[in-house]
Amino acid sequence: MRLLVCGGAGFIGSTFVRLRVRDHGDDVTVLDKLTYAGRRENLQDVESDIRFVHGAIEDPVAVADAIGDAEAIVNFAAETHVDRSISGPEEFIVTNMQGTHVLLEAARERGLRYLQVSTDEVYGSIEEGSFTESSPLAPSSPYSATKTGADLLVSSYFHTYGLETLICRGSNNYGPHQYPEKLIPLMILNALAGDHLPVYGDGRNVRNWLFVEDFGRGIGHALAHGVPGEVYNCGGPDECDNLTVVRKIIELTGRDESLIEFVTDRPGHDRRYSLSSAKLEALGWRAQVRFEDGLARTVDWYRENDWWWEPIRSGAYREYYERHYGRALNA
Ligand code: NAD
Ligand code: DAU
After folding, report:
1. For 117-175, what is each residue's pLDDT tens digit?
2. How many CA within 13 A on the CB side of residue 280?
3. Which atom belonging to ligand 2 lies closest to the Cα atom of 269?
4. What is the 3-state secondary structure (H, E, C) of the chain?
5. Nearest ligand to the CA atom of 101
6. Mean pLDDT, residues 262-289
7. Cα–Cα distance, 13 to 57 (Å, whole number)
């Protein structure tokens, strides 16, 4: 298949590109703005198999240049970190909402299939049970509000213009190449460095963990087999609270609990996410990686790939970290 993958230099997008090139022989063009989270390094092993265009999804000229003869657009491009959306929502509105609109217009002009990569956070928090695709949308943060706005716009293009749209909502991903502002890579790298492990609030917020390759396969599955106009949840096989995640990382890195530090909670912090994936499973997809195994693989990957994270930890990330956590990272 000929694909335009937007945001393909990020964590999940690059995993998806790798899967599509290696397992499906797809012809892939990546369009990516290369924000702090987008890195050519994420694609270095498939660099010669793809076309890369440096540009923003909110820029119609860049989109027209990248689109070529693509048969479908898969949109990963987004500002993705909840904490950053709380301190500065503007970029989230531009990328997540305006950018999605530009891509939808490009797909409409050319009659392309369009898959929007979305998140369980659009449903808000759930105390018990799991969200289905018909659960009400109740986002809590500027990040999830802009993702929800984008989802609604995507659906409107199906209903109004008959565009072949799909929405695939994932739960919390983890795995290689995840930027270390997110819980799991942050805790792994801090633990390896003997640095403090900053747990928000009481540490009892629960996330539904999904290994990144399972999400990549789920998105590919929805793209190939999904019914236009439909939404598909794609959740991980295991749920775990943050404190338990951190304790597992301490064990895997040979550290001790004295590194844990409880810090001020995130404003509006969602307590629990949980997705039912029955609809995507009915199409034949299943998560293959259990959390225990995926976490051990992830710790090993970060331990063995300091070439990937060392430039991040010694660069602008240090300033972000100091501003956000009010203390410096270990050198
Ligand atoms: P990421 O932050 O690692 O990567 C985002 C990518 O988008 C980067 O390559 C960045 O350069 C690019 N980008 C940002 N703004 C852009 C713009 N205006 N134009 C073009 N490119 C731009 O994100 P991720 O964790 O890989 O998430 C990818 C998608 O999956 C997002 O849409 C996110 O909402 C969704 N999602 C993420 C998770 C998760 O746990 N990480 C779970 C469910 C859904
Ligand atoms: O659920 C899917 C979403 O998962 C994606 O849509 C988002 O793009 C992605 O960032 C992620 O959002 P979360 O807010 O759940 O992920 P994060 O890694 O930021 O935090 C996970 C949990 O860990 C959350 O309860 C907050 C907590 N946390 C996070 C950080 C960074 C801490 O306790 N300490 C921290 O330092």
Report:
1. 999 999 999 999 999 999 999 999 999 999 999 999 999 999 999 999 999 999 999 99
2. 29
3. 25
4. CEEEEECCCCHHHHHHHHHHHHHHCCEEEEEECCCCCCCHHHHCCCHHHCEEEECCCCCHHHHHHHHCCCCEEEECCCCCCHHHHHHCCHHHHHHHHHHHHHHHHHHHHHCCEEEEEEEHHHHCCCCCCCECCCCCCCCCCHHHHHHHHHHHHHHHHHHHHCCCEEEEEECCEECCCCCCCCHHHHHHHHHHHCCCEEEECCCCCEEEEEEHHHHHHHHHHHHHHCCCCEEEEECCCEEEEHHHHHHHHHHHHCCCHHHEEEECCCCCCCCECCECCHHHHHCCCCCCCCHHHHHHHHHHHHHHCHHHHHHHHCCCHHHHHHHHHCCCCCC
5. 1
6. 98
7. 14
* pLDDT tens, residue by residue, 5-25: 999 999 999 999 999 999 999
Q: pLDDT tens digits, residue range 50-77? A: 999 999 999 999 999 999 999 999 999 9
**Which atom of ligand 2 is found nearest the CA of 199?**
33
- Fill in the amino acid letter for 211: F
Which band of pLDDT confidence, cut at 50, 70 and 90, is reported for residue 331? Answer: low
Q: Are 100 and 167 in contact (CB under 8 A)?
A: no
Residue 133 appears among annotated catalytic residues: no
Amino acid identity of 264?
A: T
Rounded Cα distance, 190 and 310, in Å: 12
> Ligand 1: which residues within 6 Å by Cβ?
6-7, 9-13, 32-35, 37-38, 56-58, 76-80, 95, 99, 117, 119, 147, 170, 172-173, 179
How many angstroms separate the alpha carbon of residue 138 from the centre of ligand 1?
21
Which pLDDT does position 275 carry in this prediction?
A: 98
Q: Is the CB of 214 under 6 A from ligand 2?
A: no
Q: Which of 114, 143, 174, 179 is catalytic?
A: 143
